[in-house]
Amino acid sequence: MTRTSLRLALIGDSLAYGSGAAGPRDALGPRLAAALTDAGYDVDLAVLAVPGAVTGDLTAQVRRAAPLGVDLAVVVVGANDLARLVPPAQSAAALASALADLRAAGTDVVVVPAPDMSTVPWVPPALRPLVQVASATLQREQAAVARRNGAMVAAVSDAVSAAFGTDPALFSADRFHPSSAGYAHIAQALVPHVVAAAHARRDAAA
Fold first, then answer.
1. Alpha-carbon torsion 192, 194, 196, 198, what sign?
2. Which domains does the chain have, with CATH numbers?
3. CA distance 138 to 56
4. Do 164 and 9 touch, CB atoms closer than 8 A?
5. What is the Cα–Cα distance from 141 to 149, expressed in whole angstroms?
6. What are the φ/ψ torsions at residue 178 (nearest 5 degrees)?
7. Which residues form the SGNH hydrolase-type esterase domain (predicted)?
8. pTM, whole model, 2 decimals?
């Protein structure tokens, strides 16, 4: 079988970077790269994500991606926007700008909307309903912006949050970032979307 070269970039915050994973291979980027390798791609992975980033910080990451000729970018962002109470409209506008630049450079994009932050252990139970509503609002804004800019939306939050809400082992010791097991669960949910995006790009070029 002929293999296809694929330049993959992970853009966004600590989830895209892999904070909390026990080792580099346990992070999200290498897990997605491994799945794409299994699906017939020769993957060149660049992790451009920065821990602590909010959506407004994507501009710098997209600028770093420009000379790499990225084929497929996976954008994971929003958790810090929620934690810092960034208005959803402001986050969405920043995401739209980043996606427009990526698409103009010929990069296909998979957007992973913000996680449901109400499952994070340190969120007080009394505040969880409000945090869940805020998370859902940002997710909707992000999904709408992604679709308007021709990106694929990986709407995995419900499935992922259900697991994280019931299994403390999916969180790392800081009780905020995923553990290696948590990243394995997130990657499992994302792989069908990322592989589908890679296949769509390959088929369009055929």
1. negative
2. 4-199 (3.40.50.1110)
3. 14
4. no
5. 13
6. -65, 155
7. 10-184
8. 0.95
Across 189-206, b (16+ Cβ under 10 Å) vs e yields bbbebbbebbeebbeeee
Following DSSP, what letter does each residue of 105-156 receive, concatenated? Answer: TT-EEEEEPPP-GGGSTTS-GGGHHHHHHHHHHHHHHHHHHHHHTT-EE---
Long-range CB contact pairs, 90-95, < 8 A, 24+: 90/55, 90/56, 91/54, 91/55, 91/56, 91/138, 91/141, 91/142, 92/55, 92/138, 92/141, 92/142, 92/144, 92/145, 94/54, 94/55, 94/56, 94/58, 94/59, 95/55, 95/58, 95/142, 95/145, 95/146
The token pair at 59 is 């501009």
- For residue 1, the model assigns a pLDDT of 60
Within its chain, how far is the Cα of 87 from the centroid?
19
Which one, of 82, 98, 96, lies nearest residue 9 by Cα?
98
N- to C-terminal Cα separation, the chain? 15
Spell out the per-residue pLDDT of the chain, length 206, in tens: 678 999 999 999 999 999 999 999 999 999 999 999 999 999 999 999 999 999 999 999 999 999 999 999 999 999 999 999 999 999 999 999 999 999 999 999 999 999 998 888 888 889 999 999 999 999 999 999 999 999 999 989 888 888 888 888 999 988 889 999 999 999 999 999 999 999 999 999 87
Report the distance separating Cα 148 and Cα 128, nearest Å: 30
